Amino acid sequence: MTLADTTAGATIRYTRDGSTPSDTSTLYSAPISVTATTTVKAIAIKSGLTNSAVTSATYTIGTSAGCPTQSDIPNFGPNVHIYDPTMSSATIQAQLDAQFAQMKDTATAQFSENRVAQLFKPGTYAVDDNVGFYTSVAGLGQNPDDVTINGHVTVDAFNASDAGNATQNFWRSAENLAINPVGGNRWAVAQAAPFRRIDVHGDLQLYPASYGWASGGYVADTKVSGQAASISQQQWYTRDSDLGSWAGGVWNMVFSGTTGAPANTFPNPPETTLATTPVSRDVPYLYIDGAGKYRVFLPSLRTNASGASWVNGSTPGTSQPMSQFYVVKAGDTAATINNALSQGCNLFVTPGVYHLNQTLNITRADTVVLGIGYPTFVPDNGVNAIQVADVDGVRLKGLLIDAGTTNSAALLTVGPAGSSATHGGNPTTIQDLFFRIGGQIAGKATTSLIVNSNNTIIDHIWAWRADHGNAGTVGWTTNTADTGVIVNGSSVLATGLFVEHYQKHEVVWNGQNGKTIFFQNEMPYDVPNQGAWMSAAGVNGYAAYKVGAGVTTHEAWGLGSYCYFNVNPAVNSYHAFEVPNTPGVKFHDALTVSLGGVGTITHVINDTGAATASNTTPSNVVAYP
């Protein structure tokens, strides 16, 4: 490739790694040979003149023929269990029960390496499916009612050691099926447990049978003909769904684009309701076509959406055959995965734990990476796990990224620094992506997610620096992590943002025109002393959600931040939300809580809002400014 500039006497500096060039970057003097997939960025420089704008081009090598044809009826490996309605109910039930027994126990299964996907071919089943850790349950029809469970798909406080509360019911999912439940269907979960594309013919109970604590959660693209009840749930977000009715609310219940949602009444009761979701795109999902071949459906982008995408007919969108997907399973390495990506393949990632000794590079527009059964990427030797180029339409769904024991600068980066392209018509979507620092291993990562690309949709993530886990994996100097999410791109939308326990700001939002609908946060439990946790001289702690000082337009709805400084209850955070004082930066329905009065937060947002009470009641700010 060649570079040129029209200004006489100008020199050109360039980079080949996607970073923003400067006057110290490589000097262009001859045509550049591009032999592997590369992003080249360049600027022109002349003394006395302002540097030119950055120009950028991505060259994808080795994909001109497209993805080498894969099987349309692939081998998904031993951790994917596929059920057919011709199988006896007793046989299916026995298998479901055996998988649940392995994945049930909070003490032993929560940080195991077991991973399970349960897939039901179109038809009707009479089973009760109890869903344990790292388990995905999904129908293989094109629409939810193509697979009907006459029974239940249940999450509860299953174990005696849970003491009736569901606050550790993480990492499990249900998707794309119908449920005919007797007495209602119970889905009592905490974080990282999405309930998507479900047709519940009856009631949906989002609390444990014991009425103990629960700390969820997320529902999207779902219809509940009866009542959805949160009761003891501390927080919940429901997007683009249809409810018969809703009951309950503890601190932070948020709805967007949901028919049957309660009125906006925050803080009493604490319900925040938006009539529509500004932009959304439902998740890609696996299904079987009429010829018995597997395909992945890709729902279309929706604007100002309301209601489930499928209630008036099939979800609008397109589909791709599995012949265009490389199936990642046991034995795959970063090299084999990157080779498939470089050849133009999408990825279908099956349940398992995959160690990466090099970054996975996604450079092709419209690449789909779809995981089931909580497949887990662990970056080793300090590499970053995934880097996405500044291209249109990448879809990432259903992955857990578990930081390795050598610090990574970032676990997932979308777009290189300085990304400038507009992707409003076909944004990158990050959906059901979960990040973990510690808990399983003594992981370390400076930042979990960096979004540089404009118009990106972050739809349900949980970025978690572990507050508990296996012995030796948790502690202030053990599982170190500064920040959960940094947004530098403009017009980025977050729908369902769960970020917890990071050691500095949990979220830093530097891009213009950002929006967040629903934010749930706990500050780090394990701050050793106030001196170790100061964001500036004289400013105690770090705001959980910080909007950059230069931002002039930003809006957020339904935000909660809680403290529980159990290592040193004398620790204080001055505020939970830090924003520029400008009319274009608007916050709606924000709150803080001190759990059991263990530590304090002085203000909710900037200098506004009362200090947290000692009796676990919220301090609320309805509107700021």
Form type: globular
Number of strands: 49
Mean pLDDT: 96
Low-confidence stretches: none
Helix content: under 10%
Largest sheet: 14 strands, parallel
Instruction: Give the distance, in angstroms, between the N- and C-terminal Cα atoms.
Output: 51 Å
CA-atom Rg in angstroms: 24 Å
Secondary-structure class = mainly beta
Residue fraction in strands: 35-45%
What's the number of helices? 3
List keywords for this structure.
42% strand; 49 strands; 14-stranded parallel sheet; mainly beta; 625 residues; 3 helices
Tell me the layout of helices and strands:
Elements: E1 11-15, E2 26-27, E3 38-45, E4 55-59, E5 80-83, H1 89-103, H2 106-109, E6 116-120, E7 123-125, E8 128-130, E9 135-139, E10 147-149, E11 152-154, E12 172-179, E13 185-186, E14 195-200, E15 204-205, E16 218-220, E17 223-231, E18 235-248, E19 252-259, E20 271-274, E21 277-281, E22 285-288, E23 294-299, E24 301-305, E25 317-321, E26 325-328, H3 334-342, E27 346-349, E28 353-356, E29 360-362, E30 368-371, E31 376-379, E32 386-388, E33 395-402, E34 408-414, E35 429-437, E36 445-451, E37 457-465, E38 483-487, E39 493-500, E40 507-509, E41 514-522, E42 534-536, E43 539-540, E44 545-547, E45 554-563, E46 572-578, E47 585-594, E48 600-605, E49 619-624
Parallel strand pairs: 5-6, 6-9, 7-10, 8-11, 9-12, 10-12, 12-14, 13-15, 14-16, 14-17, 15-17, 16-18, 17-18, 18-19, 19-20, 26-27, 27-30, 28-31, 29-32, 30-33, 31-33, 32-34, 33-35, 34-36, 35-37, 36-38, 37-39, 38-40, 39-41, 40-44, 41-45, 44-46, 45-47, 46-48
Antiparallel strand pairs: 1-2, 1-3, 3-4, 21-24, 22-23, 23-25, 42-43, 47-49
